[in-house]
């Protein structure tokens, strides 16, 4: 028994020694979360990555892989993602893949900010120059200050972006010269060129190969802690955007935002002109709020939003004011100009094209013409309410006595006057109305007797 006890103590001591000899910051292998980021970097993308990093931290993941394929995106969303990467307690590897993918513009910044930068064969990065509508072309290289035609705001944005990506390159020990040229001169590189230039860490065909190559690599987090990755054979959990991110992505489309605003304005208009319908007002209010929320997420010029709203209001007013087309034409012009000025960036996928704006404007014009046609049609019809509607209506005498005769006309009892003798049951027709007195003529008697066949003594009112 004593020998067995000594043996067990020796085994326990050996296990403790092995554990203590392991690297202090070793990351336990087991779980690697892969977040697929595809398309334009938008507020929905920022929300997806932020929630994914939080989920990885709560789930004890050893590594987060951003599988990236993007043409670029919004500067605000890009910087939000980078802040999350820099503060993440879980190492983040950005992998530009699969083959044929790209990390252009904002994607280059995200790649440079990640703890590990990797690319698939036949992929590329770069072309990170900031662009916006109305700005001049970015100044090129050292001649930026000499170019008198360069726009000041564009140069400020370009220099700010260049300094930002250079700081990220210095933080991660990557090629800062290429990073600055990608911003200043829109340079791009293939995966092999980026690896040779020191812009990325490695090339891998897919995520499993990436994890095999990262196994045993030590990552220094921004908190100062060092983490040794144990990723070979790790369990891969892929995270796709859920319904919430899909809705945010849909709302981040400027065309959808404009359509929501127009539907909202028209819905509220129909509710105000036809109180009690409820459905147009409720649907219009919801669409208008969603449209305003979408504008809040997008890089919009609020002068453009104002022109869109003013154009819609003028097109609606055209149907009710005798402006003879001035308001309608002015509304269409204001709407198109507002759409052209709406989006304050030239990022692909965020512009409003002339065919789209023309289509929406022509739809509004069609509604104006349809409203005018219906109004003209109603004007030609016979009046169906009020005093003007009374002459010609049929009725039946209901009471005769003491010099007063009452008749039922359209379900109502009226005091009537007639040049002919009347009695209960006679059928009459209204000739005129004077206050609450109807002037009528006798059409027929109760049994169909023609006018003028009553005997002496019949009661009538003159």
Automatic annotation (TrEMBL):
It is found in: Membrane. Gene3D superfamilies: 2-enoyl-CoA Hydratase, Chain A, domain 1 (3.90.226.10), Nucleic acid-binding proteins (2.40.50.140). Residues 388-442 form the NfeD-like C-terminal domain. It holds the Pfam family NfeD_membrane. Residues 32-215 form the NfeD1b N-terminal domain. GO terms for cellular component: membrane. Keywords: Membrane, Signal, Transmembrane, Transmembrane helix. It comes from the Bacteria. Residues 1-21 form the signal peptide. It is a multi-pass membrane protein. InterPro entries: ClpP/crotonase-like_dom_sf, Membrane_assoc_protease, NA-bd_OB-fold, NfeD-like_C, NfeD1b_N, NfeD_membrane. The chain crosses the membrane at residues 247-269, 324-343, 355-376. Its main location: membrane. Residues 256-370 form the NfeD integral membrane domain. This is Nodulation protein NfeD. It comes from Parapusillimonas granuli. The lineage of its organism: Bacteria, Pseudomonadati, Pseudomonadota, Betaproteobacteria, Burkholderiales.
């Amino acid at each position: 028994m004593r020998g067995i006890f000594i043996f067990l103590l020796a085994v326990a001591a050996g296990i403790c020694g092995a554990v203590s000899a392991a690297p202090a910051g070793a990351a336990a292998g087991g779980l690697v979360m892969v977040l697929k980021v595809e398309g334009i970097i938008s507020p929905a993308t920022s929300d997806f990555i932020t929630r994914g990093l939080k989920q990885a931290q709560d789930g004890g993941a050893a590594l987060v892989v951003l599988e990236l394929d993007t043409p670029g995106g919004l500067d605000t969303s890009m910087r939000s993602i980078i802040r999350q990467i820099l503060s993440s307690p879980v190492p983040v590897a950005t992998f530009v893949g699969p083959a044929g993918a790209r990390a252009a513009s904002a994607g280059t910044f995200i790649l440079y900010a990640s703890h590990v930068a990797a690319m698939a064969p036949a992929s590329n990065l770069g072309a990170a120059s900031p662009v916006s509508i109305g700005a001049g072309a970015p100044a090129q290289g050292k001649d930026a200050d000499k170019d008198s035609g360069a726009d000041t705001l564009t140069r400020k944005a370009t220099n700010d972006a260049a300094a930002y990506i250079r700081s990220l390159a210095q933080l991660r020990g990557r090629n800062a010269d290429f990073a600055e040229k990608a911003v200043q001169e829109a340079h791009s590189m293939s995966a092999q060129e980026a690896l040779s230039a020191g812009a990325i860490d490695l090339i891998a065909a897919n995520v499993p190969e990436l994890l095999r190559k990262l196994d045993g690599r030590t990552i220094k987090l921004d908190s100062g802690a060092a983490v040794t990755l144990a990723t070979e054979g790790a369990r891969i959990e892929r995270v796709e955007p859920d319904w919430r991110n899909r809705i945010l992505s849909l709302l981040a489309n400027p065309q959808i935002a404009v359509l929501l605003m127009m539907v909202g304005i028209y819905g509220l208009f129909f509710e105000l002109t036809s109180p009690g319908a409820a459905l147009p007002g409720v649907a219009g209010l919801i669409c208008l709020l969603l449209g305003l929320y979408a504008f809040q997420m997008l890089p919009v010029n609020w002068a453009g939003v104002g022109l869109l709203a003013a154009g819609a209001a003028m097109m609606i007013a055209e149907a009710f004011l005798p402006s003879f087309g001035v308001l309608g034409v002015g509304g269409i012009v204001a709407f198109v100009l507002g759409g052209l000025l709406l989006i304050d960036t030239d990022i692909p996928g965020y512009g409003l094209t002339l065919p789209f704006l023309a289509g929406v404007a022509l739809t509004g014009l069609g509604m104006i013409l349809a409203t005018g046609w219906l109004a003209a049609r109603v004007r030609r019809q016979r009046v169906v309410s009020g005093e003007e509607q009374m002459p010609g209506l049929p009725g039946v005498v209901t009471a005769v006595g003491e010099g007063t005769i009452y008749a039922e006309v359209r379900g109502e009892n009226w005091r009537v006057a007639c040049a002919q003798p009347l009695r209960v049951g006679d059928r009459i027709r209204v000739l005129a109305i004077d206050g609450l007195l109807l002037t009528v003529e006798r059409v027929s008697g109760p049994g169909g007797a023609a006018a003028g066949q009553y005997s002496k003594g019949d009661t009538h009112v003159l």
